[in-house]
Automatic annotation (TrEMBL):
This is Histidine kinase. Pfam families: His_kinase. Residues 148-175 form a coiled coil. The lineage of its organism: Bacteria, Pseudomonadati, Bacteroidota, Chitinophagia, Chitinophagales. The chain crosses the membrane at residues 9-29, 49-72, 81-103, 127-148. It comes from the Bacteria. Keywords: Coiled coil, Kinase, Membrane, Transferase, Transmembrane, Transmembrane helix. Residues 167-246 form the Signal transduction histidine kinase internal region domain. One of its GO terms (cellular component) is membrane. It comes from Lacibacter cauensis. GO terms for molecular function: phosphorelay sensor kinase activity.
């Protein structure tokens, strides 16, 4: 457990200030037989209360910082108990010495002062007036400290979980980008080998895609129109590559107000071509539709595939599923259906 960290000392100071005030005014608000016995706060009472509070604070921090961590470890349970007893006794002795040699002279109380040997042997006084009293008075702070420490640990755990989540998302993106680049560069290479005049056009499209991947999609969420533009650029490259073999029908129904986590839709479109269009030798129909309505996104794709040739969906869709778990844990539905030589995907997201 940590003692004080990152401005927590202010909360500790505030706590002890409040406790000091409570101890001071408590005699003024007494009820029953003691009601009205004390009407003012004297300087002597203020000094006594301050020293009492210091004794309680010493007991409190001793229990919280030293004893509790030992008691929580089974192997050190006996040591923790022995340390608790000896520590409370030591604090009681020091407190008793302070009362006799400091507090009483300050408040003008002159009595026969016990020597140190007499003080350490007054077990009844030490136990009843100091050990038990300090433990009872320390209980509010121990509770406060444990709650504060638990809150700190929970916040640290949340920060660690968030850092882990961000690191995993970054790793998933880093796996996606090379996968996409490998496929796209192969497309452009094929055009270059054929000396196609469309090579420069494809390079321009790829440049737009790379600009988006490298510089425009680092935020947690991006405008929907940017993701749609990415899909259109990718599909333009595929239309040039497959020519008349590809019969593409794409529909986008949305507005510019929606935002989405970047690079969620591209793996689905990539999968249509890698495990669908590329496997077919004849004309291939590809359909995709994107609709955003009342903060809900529906993205559907459909393509022909040969179950004898098509492998299971690759790393792109595996990464997508993991990204959905991290970014939309209870707000997503992603299904894959294979029927009548058609490969159909359906992604639904709550965008709010």
């Amino acid at each position: 457990m940590r003692f004080i960290s990152e401005r927590k000392w202010l909360m500790h100071l505030l706590f002890w200030t409040v406790m000091y005030i409570i101890y001071l005014v408590q005699p003024l608000v007494s009820v029953g037989e003691d009601a009205g016995a004390v009407t003012t706060i004297s300087s002597a009472a203020a000094v006594k209360t301050l020293f009492h509070l210091l004794s309680v604070a010493a007991t409190s921090y001793f229990i919280c910082i030293i004893v509790i961590p030992l008691l929580l470890e089974k192997a050190k349970l006996v040591n923790g108990f022995l340390l608790l007893v000896s520590g409370l006794y030591a604090i009681a002795v020091v407190s008793r010495v302070a009362v006799i040699y400091l507090v009483e002279p300050l408040v003008g109380y002159h009595n026969n002062q016990e020597n140190l040997l007499q003080i350490v042997s007054q077990l009844r006084i030490l136990f009843h007036y100091y050990i038990i009293g300090n433990i009872a008075a320390a209980f509010p702070f121990v509770t406060f400290y444990l709650l504060l420490d638990r809150q700190l640990l929970m916040r640290k755990q949340a920060e660690a979980d968030n850092e882990k989540k961000e690191a995993e998302l970054a790793a998933l993106k880093s796996q996606l980008n090379p996968h996409f680049l490998f496929n796209t560069l192969n497309n452009i290479y094929s055009l270059a080998v054929q000396n196609s005049p469309q090579t420069s056009y494809c390079i321009e499209k790829l440049a737009h895609i790379l600009d988006y991947l490298l510089y425009r999609c680092n935020d947690k969420f991006v405008p929907m129109e940017k993701e749609i533009e990415l899909l259109k650029n990718y599909l333009d490259l595929q239309k040039i590559r497959f020519g008349d073999r590809l019969v593409l029908k794409a529909e986008y129904i949305t507005d510019h107000s929606y935002q989405i986590a970047p690079l969620l839709l591209l793996p689905i479109v990539e999968n249509m071509f890698k495990h669908g269009v590329e496997q077919n030798t004849g004309q291939t129909d590809v359909k995709l539709s994107l609709e955003c309505f009342k903060n809900k996104l529906t993205f559907k794709t459909e393509n022909l595939y040969d179950p004898c040739l098509t492998e299971s969906p690759g790393i792109g869709l595996q990464n997508l599923k993991r990204q959905l778990e991290l970014l939309y844990p209870v707000k997503n539905s992603f299904t894959i259906t294979k029927t009548n030589h058609f490969f159909i995907t359906n992604l639904q997201l709550n965008l709010c």
